[in-house]
Amino acid sequence: MTSNTRVVVTGAGLAGVRLARRLGEPGLSAALAGDEEHTPYNRVLLTEVLAGRYTPRSSR
Questions:
Q1: Residue 36 CB contacts under 8 Å (≥ 6 apart), including other chains
Q2: Three-state DSSP class for 42?
Q3: Among 23, 24, 32, 35, fewest CB within 10 Å belongs to which?
Q4: CA gap 3, 37 in Å, rounded
Q5: Per residue in 8-39, pLDDT tens?
Q6: Looking only at Cα atoms, what is the longest distance across the chain?
Q7: Backbone angles phi, psi at 52, to 5 degrees
């Protein structure tokens, strides 16, 4: 990618957020587009959060 490259990541789930963060390096710009009203969370750990073994904050 060249300097000042802009990328749009469609999907604001955990994978989309991780990709946008990785693309947020110098010379790159990433925009995140998603439809969820809640902040992204780790769906794999959802059962553990509901069981009380993790807090909702630790699953992000």
A1: 12, 13
A2: coil
A3: 35
A4: 32
A5: 888 888 788 888 888 877 777 888 888 877 77
A6: 46
A7: 90, 5
